[in-house]
Design a protein that fits this description.
Distance between the termini: 38 Å
Strand order of the largest sheet: 3-5-4
Radius of gyration: 17 Å
Helix content: 10-25%
Number of strands: 5
Largest sheet: 3 strands, antiparallel
CATH topology of the domain at 28-96: Alpha-Beta Plaits
Order of helices and strands: EEEHEEH
Bound molecules: zinc ion
Number of helices: 2
Low-confidence stretches: none
Shape: globular
């Protein structure tokens, strides 16, 4: 079922978050894909849009999920339409998975880019 209030998919009859009764999910319903630090969430949303998936971001800093807030910065939830969930999961995997472009290692000294921000205005097309 799907909760319109929380944009959450779940197996039970009622939403585990807010207790509302769920309804059948529709293709265009936004569903929670993942939750990441803001900068990664924005990067993911960017990659999703490049794959023609319209992603929504919602900051979860503070209130609801204090567990996740910390020195690392604010977190964002990433929502995608239900019909695009599989593709979105694939995009996420390609960004953050084991074979990711941005492998999450503690090697800070990459020599490929010299201090450019992720949200650059120039796009590079490699093996497009
Ligand atoms: Zn709910």
């Amino acid at each position: 079922m799907y909760c319109e209030n929380c944009c959450l998919l779940f197996d039970a009859a009622k939403c585990p978050e807010c207790g509302r009764r769920g309804r059948e999910v529709r293709d265009e319903d936004y569903c929670l894909l993942t939750e990441k630090q803001e900068m990664w969430a924005e990067m993911l949303a960017d990659a999703l849009r490049q794959n023609e998936i319209e992603a929504l971001l919602r900051s979860v800093n503070g209130a609801a999920l204090s567990l996740f807030t910390g020195p690392a910065g604010s977190f964002c939830q990433v929502f995608v339409p239900y019909r695009d969930m599989e593709k979105a999961a694939w995009v996420e995997e390609s960004l953050f998975g084991p074979n990711a472009v941005f492998a999450d290692e503690d090697a800070e000294d990459t020599n490929e880019e010299n201090g450019s921000l992720p949200e650059g205005e120039n796009e590079e097309n490699e093996n497009g």
